[in-house]
User: Fold this.
Amino acid sequence: MDPESVKSNLVLILDYGSQYTHLITRRIRSLSVFSLCISGTSSLKSIVDLKPRVIILSGGPHSVHSPNSPSFPDGFVDYVESNGVFVLGICYGLQLIVQRLGGAVRVGERQEYGRMEIEVVRACGLFGSNEVGHKQTVWMSHGEEAAELPEGFEVVARSQQGAVAAVENRERRFYGLQYHPEVTHSPEGMETLRYFLFDVCGVDAGWNMEDVLNEEIKLIKGMVAPDDHVICALSGGVDSTVAATLVHKAIGDRLHCVFVDNGLLRYKERERVMETFERDLHLPVTCVDATDQFLSKLKGVVDPEMKRKIIGKEFISSFDAFGQDLERKFGKKPVYLVQGTLYPDVIESCPPPGSGRTHSHTIKSHHNVGGLPKDMKLKLIEPLKLLFKDEVLDFASLLIEFCS
Ligand SMILES: Nc1ncnc2c1ncn2[C@@H]1O[C@H](COP(=O)(O)OP(=O)(O)OP(=O)(O)O)[C@@H](O)[C@H]1O
Assistant:
């Protein structure tokens, strides 16, 4: 699928702090549809800029009645309606829709936690061809419930206790599930997400790792000028190795990898790592023996936090020295630093919604040794920053095929 089609089928998750939000993102991707997760309190502009086809409002630990409970921005409803964007609220997300569109949410007499049975009470795209009367087990986790629906909304499923379990307003393209379809305790949950995305919203599937790989190579080639040099610090772990292999595929030997032996490696780790890089991955790597440098600085230090800081600082100084060597050799300072940042690193570096801390749109990159210096001149290349770990493993298998 070409990058434009991927973008035009984007499913955007607005995160209200549920422990399952990443799982929703992951589940949607497993249906070959690209999805991104941003804070539920993001500005309207940051939502509009992404031009999502579908928006999912996640669950969260809040009450819609709390004064500081997180919500979508003003103008959101107008925006989605005038652009034909479909919206699905899950748990707290459903309650937000109900409350903000003129219905009422109250503390339920029947607070529901754990496995429950729900019954379809009205034929609806969310449940595909399942007819009225179809029962399924779902995972509930809510204290409040939709007590009055906004005008034009219909209940399409109820729990065994009679609480609202699913709602829709087809005309306005708003849908809601009080339960969590993304968890395996809702065995038919994936089917429901599938019906919603493909039958209700008409999303096209087709996002795949091969396209991601080709697109990343294209991006890196476009970004790094022909006389630019790039550094990558390799730990021997999956993330930096995959990132480096990809960048090497894109720019060849203008990538310079460094592996630092800090004297704290496992038995024969240095030999094993270097052999893997050279023999199996054909990745040129310089091994820096900094054992004395690290161990002399760590001598006598017992506080673990202090040790961590010293190690971080010494790593940075080893990378600096490596950069200077390259500058002497090529007559130009390296311009970029490759990092194996993953999507969870990116998401986790945003403050949780409702925490009172402001959401930052500049996502900080925190995947590095002991923190990068604030005045660092190197620009970052983070080719894996939109992928989850298991996606990186798929990506790696593909990359190995691609490189062999
Ligand atoms: N011995 C080392 N030599 C060079 N760089 C290193 C070394 N150890 C760690 N790094 C760098 O620091 C980053 C973060 O280190 P950390 O041990 O937290 O890795 P990680 O998050 O598990 O990722 P990875 O899978 O790449 O190891 C690594 O990705 C790598 O860029």
User: Anything to note?
Assistant: Confidence is low (pLDDT under 50) at residues 358-370. Residues 233-235, 237-240, 258-260, 262, 340, 367-369 surround adenosine-5'-triphosphate (CB under 6 Å). The first strand starts at residue 11 and ends at 15.
